[in-house]
Design a protein that fits this description.
By secondary structure, the chain is an alpha+beta fold. The chain has one domain: Hotdog Thioesterase (Thiol Ester Dehydrase, Chain A, Roll), CATH 3.10.129.10. The chain has three helices and seven strands; from the N terminus they run E-H-E-E-H-H-E-E-E-E. It has a seven-stranded antiparallel β-sheet. The longest helix is centred in the middle third of the chain and has 19 residues, at 59-77. The radius of gyration is 15 Å and the shape is globular. It starts with a strand and ends with a strand.
Amino acid sequence: MDKLNKNQIRDLLPHREPMLLVDELFDIKKLNSATALVKVRKDSFFVQGHFPENPVMPGVLIVESFGQAAAALTASGLDKSTYENKLVFLMGVEKAKFRNPVIPDCDLILKIEAIRSHGRVWKYKGEAFVDDQKMADAIWSATIVDRK
């Protein structure tokens, strides 16, 4: 599978609108890396209250987008029985840097890579771009847990 659309991502993740932020995952290298598209629009839910006169995508939602893209990458590469009835939780964020504001209307491109896995714990790194300009980068870890 080289590409996932929003409906396919929805099938892999528990997130729903408005919190399902990733619109597409492509250039998928199984359990290794992928590129994600997040469409940041003027009608995105966070624009109404996050500096309405000068809307900016909150940094915490950029990190959330990284996490969702990584979770979709991992789930798409695992046997369904491994992630079925499971949730992926963010464990930690390291070295997150927000270099430029992400302003609607734009396509935020996330390049993510799994850098380590040990059992149910995964570590990732990612970079976010708009029009080839780096907007943010981070290293984060997540774990797969049983859904309760």
